[in-house]
Amino acid sequence: MGLGNRLKSYVGMVPNPISPKTREAHARIRGASVDVSVCPYCAVGCSQLVYHKDGRIIDIEGNYESPINGGTLCPKGAATFGLLTSPYRVTKVKYRAPYSDRWEERPLDWAMERIARRVKETRDAAFEEIGENGMRVNRTLAIGHLGGATLDNEENYLIKKLFTAGLGIVAVENQARI
Q1: Residue pLDDT, tens place only, 53-67
Q2: Measured between alpha carbons, how far is 60 from 71 in angstroms, rounded to an integer?
């Protein structure tokens, strides 16, 4: 009996090495939707794939189609999933009222509403329609904006349009150029 025949008869005697549980196993991203995003950490702007199912993020990995990172992520970028899903993630803001000696916890919605209100109040109080030389300027010099380096071109374009043309803010900068 040749080696090939011996192997065939041996394989027929061995029980199937794959258990039913193993057969039923599948990737956790099966059936998930995926969106392309940008890593929130540094100025490189690595592309990430964010997998989500039923309103929850279930995995984040490097985007293999990205010319920037080709699917790779640094240790911080690879930990983005933990950043977003950790039970220790801060979801409230700390606020210290003027002249107070203690910090208070406030909801994020409260902080966003307060910031929007303060920006509007500041703009309304310091808005100039006509400059010193009599020319129309439609601006405020009382507010500035410093953007993050991980913003993509589209986000920077929209921020520039909103803050300069919409709100009249002159001082708009991005940390990628500092």
Answers
A1: 999 999 999 999 999
A2: 11
Q: Are 59 and 79 in contact (CB under 8 A)?
A: no
| CA separation for the pair 164, 166 (Å, rounded) | 6
Regarding pTM above 0.85, the answer is no
**Cα–Cα distance measured from residue 17 to residue 170, given in angstroms and rounded to the nearest whole number:** 69
